[in-house]
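Lab notebook, bench 4. The sequencing result for the construct came back, and we need a structural model before the next group meeting so we can plan mutations. Quick request posted to the team channel:

Model the 3D structure of this chain.
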Amino acid sequence: MSPSIAPTNRTVSQSTDSARLDYLDATRAFALVLGIVFHACLSFTPAFLGWAVQDVSTSPLVAMFMTVSHAFRMGTFFLIAGILSHRTFHRKGPGDFVRSRLLRLGVPFVVGWFILHPLVVSGWIMGSASLRGHVDILGGLLGGFQSLATLPKGLFTGSHLWFLYYLAMITALTLAVRRLVRATRTGNTVMIRWADGLVGWLAESPVSPVILAIPTAAALWFMRFWGLDTPDQSLVPQLPPLVVYGSTFVLGWMLSRQNEMISLITRLTPSRWMLAGIGVATVLLTGDVERDPGNPRYVSAHVAFALGYALTLWSLAFLTIGVFRKLSARPNAFVRYVADSSYWMYLFHLPVVVWLQVAVAELPLHWSLKLFFISILTIGLSLLTYDLFVRSTFIGWILNGRRRERVIMPWLLASLGRVSIRRSLKPERMLS
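Done. Here's the predicted structure in token form:
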């Protein structure tokens, strides 16, 4: 019996439960931390990608990891953003929700750009200097901040903060469409019930990633390159990325209207894992053809790649949420801390990653050791700065909606205190 998308009588949760869903926080944190590792990989690819520097040690395994992770990490983030935005909208109300989005998205985008963009540019300057055999750190920093002299040319472009801009646009469009639908008296209820019925059908269907992959692949066809473009070079909205990320956000918003649908669409079944495997294999097997436009199978390979990429996006996004739903079913203090810090970590990380890549680029060490060093040190510094300067300050209030007590520094001080006490007791034990 085939599923029906006719209007259903499912209970729709308009007054969303205010309880914190730890697995959604954990999934969002994973997607953002994965972005840190993704950027750390960019200097270790065999083909030069126009990045700040290319390391002397590279590997095709890095390129494969980057291709797969890029296919689903931001899609997963926008899917989670849609779920959490719907919950926040109904918990706070329209007015407070809009104000909180302006604060949490607008302030980091504007203020963060003026601070982070020059620091990232400085990494490019130092990377260029390293190719000539020397690195001038002070000169790189001065050159980075001097780049602001070209404003307003390039304002708010050329950084990893593009996702805030697109999230704000997609949120605004979603609210505008919602208001328009609510204002349409004739057919209002019917349209909403049909939309809920369609989402319910997708959630219950074992092949929902395939169904969703078809329109997503059509959007991917119009990207500048195979795969998902990074729309960071202009404030003019790029329609293909806007469609892809907008569709994940809207699906998350609609899923949150029927909370039971989230568990259905993210269930961990063998068929879902098989679909993800098919998508990943297709992407990896056809991706190299992009560099050979003269290949007689170029068009067919592009079609296969787009379908495989879209299937990878939806399959791994659902499976990632499903995995964390199993692993984070109960509240965990460590998971909550990382989830709270993940937004700051992603905002903060890119200049640190680029500087570290430049610092180790010429060292005769295996790429895996360097990648591990860059990733761990960046994450560690991000957590430390979060605990010291963000978590209990007005910055933490802007990013997370509230101030929280520090955790790392009190723990370190307490640990040092216990060590000093033990050392002071040793002579007494020796005398006794």
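Residues 22-407 form one domain.
Will bring this to the meeting.
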